Amino acid sequence: MLTLALAVSAMGAQAAVPVAKIQAMLAKPKVMCGRFDQSKTLAGMKKPLAASGRFCVVQEKGVLWRTLQPFPNTLRLTKGEIVHYQGDRVSMRLDAKTEPTVRMINQVLFSLLAGDLAQLEQLFKVDGTVGADSWNVTLEAREPALAKAIGTIRLDGGAYVNNIVISEASGDRTSIVFSKIEAGDKAMSADEAALF
């Protein structure tokens, strides 16, 4: 069984904590939407690139990622495809049947946003700690090709994932902070629902 190491006392005693404990802490609404603030630091550049917007995770359907600043655009990820919209127009569509990496990218992103460690454990080594009402984990890619592209991912949260930090092997670093999270059918606007 997949376990995480948990320090249980100041004297350094350790106990194995199942990923199931973190899974039990996470809210698992069918629909979850909120705000994201993203900062990407590129190796060799001093000033990070910043973006913000809204995201929605819809169980069994996928993820909607709507960047509002600095430039509006929308990305919809489902099990079968990635679709990029500019305004109401589809500017790019990648199908998992013709692009096998699409399925893996979507699985990783959907699992990260939903905090689905059981799915992530298939592709990553998981290590971390669990507190009374919070947790944090570090993911390290199992496959060399994935490790070369992604490097490591750090997640922390409580009932929801609060932060994701992706440290790429190239030296680039992406930090995403989630806030104003709402759950339930009313969390998603009619415009967002129409994209699914």
Automatic annotation (TrEMBL):
<dbReference type="InterPro" id="IPR029046">
    <property type="entry name" value="LolA/LolB/LppX"/>
</dbReference>
<dbReference type="InterPro" id="IPR004564">
    <property type="entry name" value="OM_lipoprot_carrier_LolA-like"/>
</dbReference>
<feature type="signal peptide">
    <location>
        <begin position="1"/>
        <end position="15"/>
    </location>
</feature>
<keyword id="KW-0449">Lipoprotein</keyword>
<keyword id="KW-0732">Signal</keyword>
<dbReference type="Pfam" id="PF19574">
    <property type="entry name" value="LolA_3"/>
</dbReference>
<protein>
    <submittedName>
        <fullName>Outer membrane lipoprotein carrier protein LolA</fullName>
    </submittedName>
</protein>
